[in-house]
Design brief:
It contains 14 helices and 15 strands. By secondary structure, it is of the alpha/beta class.
């Protein structure tokens, strides 16, 4: 079959599926994206460039949508070039978040489009208004409604189909749209992300931080250290953990940027803000900010972890949660959607109130103290991953969905 993938940051969510299709043989794969240094065997790339940024004269709430339309035009131009060279895909697969798919139905009328629908925003639930520490601005509701413009355009595309990885994410969409969106749970490479019983018997060094077998290691991972991923709640839990466990070492992985939400009102980073707030209550000789780490170091960190913290607003789940469970971590997760789809309290992990640092600390201390509990939670997390998060099963389901769409569309 002929596939056309689209994602501004090649390869985006499609890395594993693209590799899978190439390894099968017999498939032609073209990927339209912005320029970067990525490459995958067997994949031809077509680069698009957005000619300009949104105008400063555009209403602030509409600038994201204007940018999406500029991307849609640039992607369609790249697709016209492919069409002129004789390439006509059997299916187009991409992410609806940036508007890139919107004009492809004009270039390839009749070709089905399978879009990744990640999240539909609401002004009155889920992430908006979840954290009372950061009340919404008076204009946020209007901005959130407009933010769904790209989603709504994607849902109205002719020949359009959708997929999303969790029940929670699908349920954020309007009821009338949910039948158009297939649930396709994403998988993890269970061979790469696997337990290693000997990891706690060896020294571990991550970005210059040395963890010895005598230490109790608490880990936290996020793309960026920010409230959406519970960074503030984690930090406020640390003084009690450090006071009650002199052998505890904390490693926090993540950058100082903002992936979701906003920067602190006073400027600077969330890490700086929390460090100022907690001051001398933190023993910084045992709290280590290691920035972003390579994937091998990330996996080594999870294998060594004695307790792994994963908190999030009711929002999109991180890949790191899936990988931590596959690695057999004792996960302490926030009692929020979609974490509850992965973690069953006292079975595949522990669930704690997102906004209660004392309960977070108490649960971490319980897991550190009761090693039989930690071992059982890790083993059950791994079993869950083997049953529900296997990459091979995910790729087979992905291919089945694609074939059903193509066959239905052309029947």
């Amino acid at each position: 079959m002929r596939y056309l993938f689209v994602h501004q940051n090649f390869p985006g969510q499609f890395l594993h599926f693209v590799r899978y299709l190439h390894e099968q043989g017999g498939n032609e794969i073209v990927f339209i994206s912005e320029a970067n240094e990525g490459s995958i065997d067997g994949v031809r790339r077509a680069i698009y460039r957005v000619p300009r940024l949104p105008s400063s004269a555009t209403h602030p709430h509409l600038r994201e949508f204007e940018y999406a339309l500029l991307r849609a035009e640039a992607v369609a131009k790249a697709a016209e070039t492919l069409k002129g060279l004789g390439y006509k895909p059997d299916i187009i697969i991409g992410h609806h978040g940036w508007g890139e798919l919107l004009n492809l139905v004009d270039v390839f009328p009749g070709t089905p489009v399978l879009g990744y629908f990640e999240f539909f925003y609401h002004a009155d639930r889920n992430d908006v208004g979840f954290d009372p520490e950061f009340p919404a601005s008076p204009t946020l509701s209007a901005a959130v409604r407009v933010k769904n413009a790209i989603n709504l355009q994607g849902l109205s595309l002719p020949n359009g189909y959708g997929q999303t990885p969790t029940h929670f994410q699908r349920d954020t969409y309007p009821v009338w749209a949910q039948d158009k969106i297939s649930l396709l749970r994403e998988g993890v490479n269970l061979d790469l992300c696997c337990p290693d019983a000997s990891a706690r018997r060896r020294n571990l060094t991550i970005n210059g931080v040395k963890i010895s077998p005598r230490d109790k290691l608490i880990t936290y991972v996020a793309r960026d250290l920010e409230p959406y991923r519970g960074f503030h709640s984690v930090m406020r839990a640390l003084p009690r953990i450090l006071d009650e466990r002199p052998d505890a070492q904390i490693i926090l992985v993540g950058g100082d940027g903002v992936s979701y939400g906003a920067r602190p009102n006073e400027g600077g980073t969330w890490r700086e803000k929390l460090l100022r707030e907690l001051g001398s209550r933190l023993d910084l000789s045992r709290v280590h900010f290691v920035g972003k780490v390579g994937y091998d170091d990330f996996r080594a960190l999870l294998r060594r972890s004695d307790a792994h913290l994963y908190l999030t607003y009711p929002f999109v789940a991180s890949w790191s949660l899936r990988e931590a469970m596959a690695t057999g971590c004792a996960v302490i997760g926030s009692d929020t959607a979609p974490v509850r789809e992965f973690v069953t309290d006292n079975v595949t992990g522990r669930l704690v109130p997102f906004l209660d640092p004392n309960r977070i600390a108490e649960t971490v201390l319980e897991v550190l103290e009761d090693r039989s509990l930690a071992k059982r939670l890790g083993q059950d997390a791994r079993r869950y991953a083997e049953s529900e998060l296997c990459l091979k099963d995910y790729l087979a389901r992905y291919e089945k969905l694609v074939l059903e769409i193509v066959n239905t569309h052309h029947s």
